[in-house]
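May I ask for whichever protein you like with its backbone structure tokens?
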Amino acid sequence: MSKSEFASYCGVAPVECSSGQTTKFRNNKRGNRILNSLLYSI
């Protein structure tokens, strides 16, 4: 498992939500929420 796959699995990788010419990123609401919570508490 690569670093990017692990970040996506944990839900800490940003997700692109673009519209037209603007490029924006938001937090990923998917993934393993328990693992995400554990990483942020550390």
User: Anything to note?
Assistant: The first helix runs from residue 3 to 10. The longest strand covers residues 15-16. The helical segments are 3-10, 33-41. The radius of gyration is 12 Å.
